[in-house]
Amino acid sequence: MIPSILLTLALAPSAAKQESFVEKLQGETASFKMVKIPDGKVTVNGKEFEVKNLYVGETEITWDVFDIYAFSQDLTDDQRAEGFDAKSRPSRPYGKYDRGFGHAGYPAIGMAFNSAEMFCVWLSKKSGKKYRLPNEAEWEYAARAAVQTEPSDLGKIAWFKDNAEGQTHEVGKKTPNAWGLHDVLGNASEWCVSLDAEQVTRGGTFLDTKDIVNFSKRVPYSPDWQERDAQLPKSKWWLSDGGFVGLRVVCEAP
Questions:
Q1: In what order do the strands lie in the sheet with 199-202?
Q2: Adjacent-strand bridge partners of 55
C-alpha cells in the first residue's frame, strides 16, 4: 500500500541551504556532502512523525566512498591479512560489482540491506557521528522538499528508463530539489527502513518507466534480487540481481 503523506515545515525551505558539512575519508581522497534539512512534521497513514535535526546525503553514496568500507581500504596490509574486522565487512562479490556502469562518482549498487546498515555502523565509528539509513517518512519528507505534487519534468531531475540508457549515471548531474538533494528519484533506488521496520527501497531506478518513478514509489526487498546467488543461505552482503539498489545516508545532528 502506498503511504499517504502530509508535510508540515517548521522552517522555511531556504533554511536547509544554510547548514551543511563535507565528510572526508581516507585522507580526503573520498568525501560526500551532508545537507541540513528543515525541521518539520510528516503524517504517514494517519501517524505523525517529527523530522528534526537531520542531515541528509546530498547524493547517493558513491563507489569512491563505499569501496573504502567494502574492500577494507582503510586497513593496513597486516590488518587485512589477519582478517581484522572481517565479520562486519562484505566478502568480495563475484564478477564486476559495478556492472560496468561506471565507478568513481557513480552510485554504489548491489549491496544487501545488511551491507548498507553495516556501512553506516562503520561510517559512524570512522567519523564519530551518528550515521544510519533513513526511515521511509524521513526519506519522503527530504525527497519532496515541501513539494506535495509529483515532478512535472522528470527528465530534468532524474535518470529513468527513457533517458538512462540502461545504466546508472554519475551522481549530481541532474537538477537538485529545493533543499539541494540530487537524484532522489531514479538512478539507483535507495535502501530505507520501512515504517514497520522492514527492508524497502524508495525513489525508483534507472530501469523504471516514467509513470512509476515518483516520491511514493516503494519496493520491498524481493528474493528475486538474489536469484542467481548460488550460496545457501544467500549472501547477506550482496545482491546478485539487484544492480539497481543503492543507498543514501542520514546523520543525526548533535
A1: 218-220, 199-202, 189-193, 245-246
A2: 36, 251
Q: Which pLDDT does position 120 carry in this prediction?
A: 98
Record the cell numbers describing residue 187, joined without a space: 538512478
Each residue's pLDDT tens digit, 117-137? 999 999 999 999 999 999 999
Query: Which spans in the chain are helix H?
Result: 63-70, 77-81, 113-127, 136-144, 154-157
Residue at grid coordinates 506535495: 148
Tens of pLDDT, residues 139-157 = 999 999 999 899 999 999 9
The CA distance from 223 to 11, in Å, is 41
Quote the CA–CA distance of 108 and 105 in Å, as a whole number. Answer: 9
**213-233, pLDDT tens digit by residue?**
999 989 999 999 999 999 889
Written as nine digits, the cell of 121 is 555502523
Give the cell for residue 160: 529513468
CB atoms closer than 10 angstroms to residue 149: 8
pTM: 0.91
Alpha carbons within 13 angstroms on the beta-carbon side of residue 223 total 5
| DSSP-assigned states of every residue in 161-204 | TTTSTTS---TT-SPP-TTS---SSBSSEEEEE-TTS-EEEES-
